Amino acid sequence: MNRPLVAILSGAGVSTDSGIPDYRGPNGLWRTDPEAEKLVTYEYYMGDPEIRRRAWLMRRQSGALRAEPNAAHRAVAELERAGVPVRVLTQNVDGLHQLAGMPARKVLELHGSARSVVCTGCHARGPMDEVLARVDAGEDDPACLTCGGILKPATVMFGERLDPVVLGEAAAITKACQIFIAVGSSLQVQPAAGLTGVAADHGARLIIVNAEPTPYDEIADEVVREPIGTALPRLVHSLRTEGAS
Ligand code: ZN
């Protein structure tokens, strides 16, 4: 039999066990501290060198690049290794699904990646750790080495649009999947909320794993409230068993 395509929408809750707080959610740090929000708001970042200096220091101190994948990331990667067709649509920018072993081409990063930088002038990309090494060496607002332009993380800042190509691919996967698992997301912001609705409209089995209620619980086929670190491995195990039968 054909194995069902599993789409996994992963939100901030998937990475909290790796020590990465929810910055971006409705109650996240960026949204509750106006000064912190400026550091990740495109208009302020581009217009004020002092904001950029603070943003580079914050990135250098956050330690987010040193975070390790947790049981939830590993469970998703194991499902893929078991031969189940899996695609991850993630709201996270930490790259931990890939570090856990998910092939990069099967992970759509809806909000970009904090592991890379992009030049706002020539659009050249490079590794974040190389730029942070320049900050360590004393550059407080490192510029693009190719064109001198302003560098920013390859994440979608507030005030920036999501990548329409990534969004289009995410929508296509959502429409094509037979199982849609929304995990660790409040499903209150776009595109997560919209994708979940699309999955349900297209007849996917909808499974929601989240500590708090979401607006989609009522239409879900299954709602799991237990901690993600145990819920996701168990869910993945049952999907593997189903797929083998
Ligand atoms: Zn450049």
Structure write-up:
The structure is a single chain. With 245 residues, the chain is α/β, with parallel strands linked by helices. The protein folds into two domains: 1-20 and 68-111 and 162-245, 3-Layer(aba) Sandwich (Rossmann fold); 25-66 and 115-155, 2-Layer Sandwich (SIR2/SIRT2 'Small Domain'), CATH 3.30.1600. Helix content is 38%, strand content 17%. It is built from ten helices and nine strands. It has helices at residues 29-32, 34-39, 42-47, 49-62, 71-81, 96-99, 128-136, 164-176, 192-201, 228-244; strands spanning 6-10, 86-90, 107-109, 112-119, 125-127, 151-155, 179-183, 205-209, 222-224. Strands 3-2-1-7-8-9 form a six-stranded parallel β-sheet, sandwiched between helices. A three-stranded antiparallel β-sheet has the order 5-4-6. The protein is elongated. The protein starts with 5 loop residues before the first strand and ends with a helix. The structure holds zinc ion (ZN).
List keywords for this structure.
245 residues; alpha/beta; Rossmann fold; SIR2/SIRT2 'Small Domain'; 2 domains; six-stranded parallel sheet; three-stranded antiparallel sheet; 10 helices; 9 strands; 38% helix; elongated; binds zinc ion
CATH fold-type name of the largest domain: Rossmann fold
Q: Give the SSE order as H and E letters.
A: EHHHHHEHEEEHEHEHEEH
- Average pLDDT, rounded to a whole number, is 93
- Biggest beta sheet attributes: 6 strands, parallel
Uncertain parts: none
Structural class: alpha/beta
Radius of gyration: 19 Å
Strand coverage percent: 15-25%
Silhouette: elongated
Give the domain tally: 2
CATH architecture name of the largest domain: 3-Layer(aba) Sandwich
List the strand order in the largest sheet: 3-2-1-7-8-9
